[in-house]
Design brief:
CATH architecture of the largest domain: Beta Barrel
Distance between the termini: 15 Å
Strand content: over 45%
Radius of gyration: 26 Å
CATH topology of the largest domain: Porin
Number of domains: 2
Structural class: mainly beta
Largest sheet: 16 strands, antiparallel
């Protein structure tokens, strides 16, 4: 569930990395940086054969694309490097539990004096694997049970079923994933899912039953995703005290939408990066392929990170979004943006700022949020080189606004409204990185610019999630 898109329920991420050994976890081959290397580099060799031992149900033509570069190596160092890269590609397919590389001189009648044979010894995953783990969302924890059928048809396809039971959300879904041979970044996935979520800040309960189809592919330095989604949404009141505005939104609706996302990510880590940047834009058009929801939704995310002296990091981020209704029908509470809480504008309660009715927050059609952060090591560096490196001291300044717009007015009036009544906060705290999966924050927050109806969390605030402002 996105930080500001709280009402748009998402199924579990079915295309995440497999549990176990990943290509990123593989240690690089140690290559001697001595005169021996010069001798090996200058010695011409020919890779005559590449063998793959241990194949069962995997089709050999799939692996031809992944190992093709090994034949182009012209010296021993190059053979070792390209073999290691091919090993990473084979592991990335998610169909092998283990891949080992053996390089030997060629044998046989046609063996050349400088000929080499490269052998990849692989161990396939079982036909069916199960998993049990916990998942951290934005201020939400859940238990996840999974069942995977890797390499279903022998060409790295994957069939996945997952069930999640969480503090605010319960979901289950079935997903089929198919990569293009030789181009793992190009893939297609089809998802069937049901998600039920509770949103106490709006006294709302939402159940989504949907189907989606995604096409992902790289273009230059970007990752692109095209998606169609059809979802039957059921909205209901979470409490008897729900406001009339929420009760009015209750009922059934059908959304059919086309969306596009583009991501450029040069960060060295998605959780606590020390350098690099992120640029992400997302647009969604609903109503032209059916359904009774009609709107155009645009939002973006920018993040820049720079390493400073004493192992400190300066980070700046900016989010923004706009929701335009199409036709005379107003936008739904399920499609609007939400802001506030420990993962966005700290010092405010979860999604508890902006338009509201009788204490229930209804979301907004336009928003922006910015953050400036300084991450430093713990004072006196306790546990340096080990557990202590998972912690960072955190100083922050957040600001943002969320509102509805009168679309009969011009862009200048819209910008003026977004610039009025800005909420902002500052403070400091401790950040704990949980691997490269999620992070925890314990902050002391001082909210400022509080408007009538906003709920604040003045003082200590705890946050957990994967996406932070």
């Amino acid at each position: 569930m996105g930080t500001v898109h709280a009402r748009s329920l998402d199924p579990l991420p079915m295309r995440g990395p497999e549990l176990g050994v990943q290509a990123d976890d593989i240690e690089a081959l140690d290559i001697e940086q001595e005169p021996k290397q010069e001798v090996l580099e200058n010695k011409d060799v020919v890779v005559q054969r590449v063998h793959i031992d241990g194949l069962g149900r995997t089709k050999e033509d799939l692996l031809t694309y992944e190992i093709a570069e090994v034949f182009r190596a012209r010296n021993l160092i190059d053979v070792m490097r390209k073999s290691h890269e091919a090993r990473q590609k084979l592991l990335r397919l998610g169909i092998f539990r283990k891949v080992e590389v053996v390089i030997d001189t060629s044998r046989g009648e046609d063996a050349l004096p400088n000929g080499l044979d490269v052998t990849f010894e692989v161990t396939e995953l079982r036909r069916m694997t199960g998993s049990y783990n916990t998942m951290v969302g934005n201020n939400e924890g859940s238990m996840v049970l999974g069942l995977k059928l890797p390499n279903v048809f022998g060409r790295a396809e994957k069939l996945t079923f997952q069930f999640s039971y969480g503090t605010k959300e319960t979901s289950y879904g079935l997903s089929f994933f198919k990569p293009q041979p030789g181009r793992f970044e190009r893939n297609v996935s089809i998802n069937l899912y049901k998600v039920t979520g509770q949103f106490p800040w709006s006294s709302l309960r939402e159940t989504d039953r949907g189907v989606s189809a995604e096409l992902s592919f790289p273009v230059w330095k970007t990752n692109q995703t095209l998606k169609w989604e059809g979802v039957w949404r059921e909205l209901g009141c979470l409490a008897r005290t729900a406001s009339f505005a929420v009760r009015e939104e209750s009922g059934h609706s059908l959304k059919s939408s086309l969306s596009h996302a583009m991501v450029i990510d040069t960060r060295n880590s998605s959780i606590l990066p020390k350098k690099g940047g992120l640029f992400k834009i997302h647009q969604e058009l609903a109503g032209y392929t059916g359904g009774d929801a009609s709107f155009l939704k645009e939002d973006f995310e920018i993040q820049l990170n720079r390493s400073l002296f004493w192992d400190s990091v300066l980070s700046a981020s900016l989010w923004g979004g706009l929701l335009l209704p199409i036709g005379d029908k107003p936008t739904s509470i399920a499609d609007r943006f939400y802001l506030g809480g420990p993962t966005s504008i700290r010092g405010f309660s979860m999604y508890s700022m902006g338009p509201q009715s009788e204490g229930d927050y209804l979301g907004g059609e336009a928003y922006w949020a910015g953050g400036l952060h300084l991450y430093t090591p713990l004072p006196f560096r306790p546990g340096r080189g080990g557990f202590g490196d998972l912690f960072r001291t955190h100083f922050f300044l957040n600001a943002g606004n969320l509102c509805n717009l009168n679309y009969g007015e011009g862009p200048q009036a819209h910008l003026k409204k977004l610039a009025e009544c800005i909420r902002w906060s500052y403070g400091l705290g401790i950040v704990l990185r949980l691997g490269n999966i999620a992070r925890l924050e314990l902050n002391y927050c001082i909210p400022m610019g509080v408007q009538s109806g906003d709920r604040i969390c003045d003082g200590v605030q705890f946050g957990a999630g994967i996406r932070f402002l």
